[in-house]
Amino acid sequence: THFGFQSVPEALKESMVGGVFSSVSSSYDVMNDAMSLGIHRLWKNHFVSTVLDPRGGINCLDVAGGTGDIALRILDHARTAHADRETRVSMLDINADMLREGMVRCKRESMYWGTDQLGFQLGNAERLGERMVVPPPTSKKAIYRQLPELKSEPVPDSSVDLYTIAFGIRNCTHIDQVLKEAYRVLKPGGVFGCLEFGKVGNPYFAELYRQYSFRILPSLGHLLASDSASYQYLVESIERFPSQPDFAQMIREAGFCTPGVGQGSQIIEEAGLGQEY
Ligand code: SAM
């Protein structure tokens, strides 16, 4: 369960990450609340209200969309804050189990199910131009049989107004490739928004956080989802992710810039959030 991204072959790492998310898919939403004491909801609300264009009627691609936390927030925020029922979100994830959980949730809980405002796509953030083979569900849940077939279509160049990726990029093998693909699919002037864990600056708080993440989180995973290994992986992936300034530099190297802010990104340094370009 303790694998280093750099030391495993790429295909193996992708399948390991796939295994982790298949294993956590059914408990993912409960665990997010338990691990963050519900705070992830505030981060996500803040993120969506920061990146969403108030003009409305835009094409969004939510990469590593998981069970739909960001996609649903985008559509809710567009509707409630901007009276916008034209904005569309395509949720893309490499893991069919996570997407199917997302479909079940959207079907049960949202008004967007079955409308052209919301779509689901199997795909790899590192290769958005490629189709993936859609695997059958790993769970035999009856509700999965009522879902439409998952699709996997290439994302064309310059087709997206807003690209979001929340708590997803650190799971990818080549972050630079993800950023390059984001740049390719965004229209000129489009927005790249990334929400991700950053490094904790204060050394006392950093140690507290370390203890919490290495000792308490895997135990919580064991208690609530009978799966400490996957949650251990999640903790380790956060540890390995670049610091905020390093990640900001990678974003700039992919060609992005922030209008009016010059080469630095205020948003990144301020909140550890990903950015607008
Ligand atoms: N964005 C959602 C959220 O904020 O709740 C889900 C985040 S979840 C921690 C990470 C997601 O990234 C998982 O659903 C996983 O399947 C997906 N993922 C991992 N590697 C990926 C890749 N290369 N391309 C697309 N999705 C990927």
Automatic annotation (TrEMBL):
GO terms for cellular component: extrinsic component of mitochondrial inner membrane. Keywords: Membrane, Methyltransferase, Mitochondrion, Mitochondrion inner membrane, S-adenosyl-L-methionine, Transferase, Ubiquinone biosynthesis. It is found in: Mitochondrion inner membrane. S-adenosyl-L-methionine binds at residues 67, 93, 124-125. Methyltransferase required for the conversion of 2-polyprenyl-6-methoxy-1,4-benzoquinol (DDMQH2) to 2-polyprenyl-3-methyl-6-methoxy-1,4-benzoquinol (DMQH2). The keyword Methyltransferase applies. Belongs to the class I-like SAM-binding methyltransferase superfamily. MenG/UbiE family. Its EC number is 2.1.1.201. Coiled coil: none annotated. Pathway: Cofactor biosynthesis; ubiquinone biosynthesis. This is 2-methoxy-6-polyprenyl-1,4-benzoquinol methylase, mitochondrial. It catalyses: a 2-methoxy-6-(all-trans-polyprenyl)benzene-1,4-diol + S-adenosyl-L-methionine = a 5-methoxy-2-methyl-3-(all-trans-polyprenyl)benzene-1,4-diol + S-adenosyl-L-homocysteine + H(+). Component of a multi-subunit COQ enzyme complex, composed of at least COQ3, COQ4, COQ5, COQ6, COQ7 and COQ9. Transmembrane segments: none annotated. It is an enzyme of class 2 (transferase). GO terms for biological process: methylation. It is a peripheral membrane protein. GO terms for molecular function: 2-methoxy-6-polyprenyl-1,4-benzoquinol methyltransferase activity.
